[in-house]
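Q: What does the assembled structure look like for these inputs?
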Amino acid sequence: MKHRRLLFLIIGLLLALSLTLAACGPSVPTPEAEEPEPAPTEVEAAPAEEEEAAPPEEEEEAAPSEEEEAAPAEEAGADPNALPRNETLYFNGQQWGSVVGWNPYSNNNNNAMTIAQQDNARVLMFETAYLYNMLDSQVYPLLADGPYEWNADRTEITFSIKPAAHWSDGTPVTAEDYAYTWATHVKYNTPTGAANIDYIDDIVAVDDGTVMVKAKLDEDGNALNPLLVEAYLSTNYFIQKAWTQTLEERVGNDATALLADPAEDVVYSGPYHKYFADDSKVVLIRDDNYWGQDASMWGSLPVPKYLAHVIFKDNAAGTTALQAGEVDVSQQFNSNVNLLWEQDGLPISTYVPDPPYMIGASLPTAFFNLDSPGLDQVAVRKAIAMAVDYPTIIANAMTNQSATFDQVPRSLMNPTEGEQALYDHEAVADLQWVGNDIEGANALLDEAGIVDTDGDGWREYEGENLSYVATCPNGWSDWQAGIEVVAAAGAEIGIEITSNYPEWSVYQTVVTKSDAPLPEGYDIFMMWSDGAGPTQPWGRIRKLMSSEFIGMSSNWNGNWGMYANPDADAIIQAIPAETDPDALREMYTDLVRIYLTEVPSFTLMYRPQSFHTVNETVWTNFPYEGDGTNPPVPPLNLMDGWSVAGLYNLELVNP
Amino acid sequence: MKHTLRQVFESGKFVSGFAIFVAILLVVTIYPLLVPEPPLRIIGQGTFFEPGIYVNVYDSISAPHFTLNLDEAAERRIAGRLADRDRGAILTWLVGVGIPESEIDIANTEQLLDQWFSNFDPTVRIPGMTNADRNYYIRLNSSIQGLLSTEDVIIAHANEETASLEAAGTIRPSAYVNVGQIPNVRILPLGTDNFGRDVLTELVKATAVSLKIGFVAGIIATTIGLILGLVSGYVGGFVDDVLMFITNMFIVIPSFVLLILISFSISQEQRGAVTIAVVIGFTSWVWTARAVRSQVISLRNRDHVNLSKLSGHSIAHIIFRDILPYIASYVVMALILQISSAILAEAGLSILGLGPKTTEVPTLGLMMNWAMIYQAHILGKWWAYLPVIIVIALIAFSMNLMNTGLDQVFNPALRE
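A:
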């Protein structure tokens, strides 16, 4: 009896163990070759329990589609769970959750390794005509051959295509492909189409190798926004016409179906493509027939054969993998990143060795709801902004991964040299508050007659205590910590500020609804601003200040506090057509002056375009400040815009 | 009653549990009187300052200086800035730039630094050197500048009129200050957290809040469980069926899942500490209800109850006078366990980010949550989370000890 019980216990334990192992099998990815060890247990356990077979089956379901794709590379034969370490570059912080599709027309692929049509477009699989470099604000030709040219009236852009450029199926990349891509964007009203249709009239093929982009014109015959037309060239992909037609046929010309198609058969021109993808990792493999090895482009293939991104549960898991050397390039917020080398002595580094460790590009900003009682007063807005302790936000919330406002005085520009040179620092120096100025803020409020008359410690405006809620989405830790500091500042100047963190799902719908006043609880709220890109800083300023977004029922652009100033609007509208640098500088200076005087919103910190931390256990020669590359390779994880050039410079630490 | 109490306090387990619990309560009440600082005040600019004594540098310059001639001072100073690992790295560098290894003696600090300063060039890349190595050498180079210097350091004021520096004093390498004579010394026994808050002050407040949550939730849960159990057990029949149907339904749903769902559906504005306590209370009464019911069922046919019935007493009278006293000891034990599990439940909820609002009050769970978000556990900043864990463990431990002690007193089967 006793023995039997023991037996049951052992069997039970074994079952439980096998269940756990089987359940863990697919979802606990170990990039190292240790994986096979638990695998046999899994197989043994499978016949014992029929239900058990379920998780492995799931994996098999995914497998066939992989095999089609992986078939040509079969001779390489690497198991995606045991990639050769010194041929694989590992990433983190990009891909969260499993990939939905590989469709360059759609915005819903959740495919962070290959699809991002943005200011610094991701060009590992699909390619743009030009690559933007955030470090020197220049664009460099990729599929295009040489620089683009405006016609005399600045209404049409012409560029040619590199003769060497060809698709993954071997056919050449032609102007017709580019024109057809645009036509498809328009026809099916894709996100790209919708975003550009107001500025681009048409894209046509002049001949096989020459593209002409025609701008939309205003009544006077001038391009409505030449800046956005230029930006299109480095933002949006070339997509093959033949494949697009196949796709259209498959979906029966239905727009929804076209955007929802996972596009496993997509034809691409870039150096990498899908090798493996499931809920545990995404692996790209190099296309050894990549056209870019031609001397007219890179002259060689990118160094790593595989690019792999393990899908981590959260930042902490990603950091642990980075520490262990299982991640080479980390695009995530690793708090106190400097401790990884100072304290732990790991071969980890950031683009800049000292604070702020990164190149700041965007300005996370606290917006004022200008309809809240009292916040329509400039004095109140400015007093709050002046009283905030920014050094603490930067030191604590961002763990010093942001330039301070002493280093880069506040304006509308990001800390890059190119943007800083665009306004007259002297002219607005008086307006650039550094924060922590309790005295100044109190004086400002007293002067404006906003005082505490009933002696309860809080100032009143029109008989009401000034009391606000500062908010940002729950779980966005650096912003939350920032908002805490803002709230603390209020108490110092007699303005009650409490913090509140709604879930992102709620927050985003409330904040982006710009056709009605914001509800209670959104007096001071955090949102982002644009980073670095070919239209910046104009694009960022527009999204911080332009009143054109007021009234949109779903406003993902900006100016969420609904600030309206006709003077600012006029300047913002005039900038894209202006080409004289002196005039531009004056216009930008005026905008900074208006912004710092009226304070419709205020920046809490600088944030990098991408976090970029590298571990040199296996690979080295990543970009760093002063690495001597010319043009300089920006720290954008070797995949965005010109930073893809970094893939060609990598070396093994131990070849 | 007196007799029962004496019995209870004779139980060693109960007394030790009680002592721990009272100690925690005392600290929670007395500490805020001694350190009246608001617990959420951000004092540190920077995250996770190590526990220790922080001496104001500015004040220590003007404080009286004493000369102590201690033998090992220079050695310690050098060891602090040039560890053995650094010496090894210098050796690697020197060999890398072509100095024969035989000419390098890493134990000879003077010679080593000499060789280092005459050969180091941040732009040189020795083979196999990564950028991380390069950064390390640059850091090392700046940290060992002036390491062997025996000269005084000059303190200077900036004269704004002449835009020059004026010497205001010197500091000898053998100068010491007496910490007692420095006006600004701050002891941070548990360092600071990711917000730059004093962890100890925050922890004490958090313990108080968590205990409050525990009490409120425990009392609610026990009260509900007790009432349902009493009614259901004594009245029986249809009422029992209905009440047990509800109770069983709640038993089937894991209470923590229910807790998560309810907390999630309450928006964060409303999610204060008391709200969380109420939510926890309303989701954790089921086992108490069942246990009380079964006890009542066994009591309901006792002679004294029947006698009471025959005497025409009302149901309420019977329940409260003839049944409740017999299960009182059990109820007290259940209450203690409910309190301890409510504190754990709050911690669990907060770790998931569903706890009370961050800004108003700290709770033990919130402290853990923030320590985790800022990766204290990965960076080895133990003081941000370990004390919290210990406090949670101590509370749960003391409550369970008390409970076991009571059990020994009241349960005839366990009585020694």
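Residues 56-68+149-188 of chain B form one domain.
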